[in-house]
Amino acid sequence: MTGIFINYRRDDAPGVAGRLYDHLAKSISRRDLFIDVDAIKPGLDFVKQLDTQVSQCDVLLAMIGPHWLKAEDEQGRQRLHGDRDYVRIEIAAALKRDIPVIPVLVDGADMPAEEELPEDLKSLTRRHALELRHTRFAADADAIVAALKDALPKRKSRWPYMAAAACLVAAIGLGSAYYFWHGSTPSRSTAMTPPAPAPTKEPAAPAPSPVAPKSASEGQVSPPAGQPLTVDEAERRVAEAKRKMAAIKGEAPSSPAEAPPPDAKPMPSIEGITVALGDPRDGVRQAYPQAADSGSGDLFMPLDGVKFFFTKDHKVLREIMVEAPFKGSVDGVQIGDTADDIVARRGQPYAVADVYGGSGYLYHAGGNILRYDIDEKSKKITDIVQILDRQ
Q1: Is 345 exposed, middle or buried (0-12, 13-18, 19+ CB in 10 A)?
Q2: Core vs surface per residue 117-156: b (16+ CB within 10 A) or e
Q3: Whole-structure pTM over 0.85, yes or no?
Q4: Measured between alpha carbons, how far is 237 from 309 in angstroms, rounded to an integer?
Q5: What is residue 40's predicted lDDT score, i.e. its pLDDT?
Q6: Distance (Å, whole) CA 346 – CA 363
Q7: What are the E-state strand segments in the chain?
Q8: What is the rounded end-to-end Cα distance, in angstroms, of the chain?
Q9: If you count DSSP H runs as helices and E runs as strands, how many of each does the chain have, helices first?
Q10: pLDDT tens digit string along 19-33?
């Protein structure tokens, strides 16, 4: 069984735990998510039941809210130090079995010190923690999903074998069809062919008058309406459509883009980041050995607000994203600055893309793309992204 056990204290972070459960259910089957103790059967030792449930899971998320450590029982004693505290029982069961435990710090909660925890929970402080903030819930929850995909065991899928079998059946069917068709159809050498018609001389078409392209990017003039497209014109239109879609999605175009304008500023460095676009993945991993692997080859440092994305072959750094709580600056602009600050620094963007929750201001920078994501309501910068303008 592949399962994720969400451990939380009901009077500490119940709403956040439920919201995270719904977010995880978008990427992970609900049958693999365990969130509550409602399944405890009456008449049985609930400590053993909790221990059994945790033992069936592969990862435990320990939700640590602002009151997680200080919660008290009816007698005023600290719950976490009680032998019957289910939060302690579940975490201790996972640690005892060496099941990965990921502390999730909710809304600014601090990681407890080792001396504040009971003996069977002290090793929790040596686990890398992730944040889950109300103001950045979607981004933080996505980082948790990436960490879970890296921690969960990989399932073997039957689809490759099913697809191979389907291809084999299709090949056999096509081969049989060809055999019967070929056996019942005369060969080209014996089939009667009608004589070729005599060639007719077509009047020479008038040479088209030369028309200069409207811009440097329009190397070919579109044919008038009603005339069929040439192959070159069709390919040009497809490439132009792909570039426009990439700009709208805020992605680097898949085909070579137009050359940046002569006055495009160079790509600014990100304060505190020692790698750059185009660097090999091995070099990035060596520079940041503490970065968590997303499971798809990308590297995340959520506590620093830094994410590294790589090309499809996982070889080259194609995108660097910084977000809260990143404290550095990019060309003098920081997370939390306004859209006016960007325009004052770099001028008007060459395009504005629709991004999640707002707009992305796009700039040419040193042959690549620089994007500032602006929150729709606050008009403040939420993310700054450097994008490699080639794949």
Answers
A1: middle
A2: beeebebbeeeebbbbbeebeebbbbbbbbbbeebbeeee
A3: no
A4: 29
A5: 60
A6: 8
A7: 4-7, 33-34, 59-64, 101-106, 130-132, 292-293, 299-301, 306-310, 317-323, 351-355, 358-365, 368-375, 381-387
A8: 38
A9: 8, 13
A10: 898 888 888 777 788
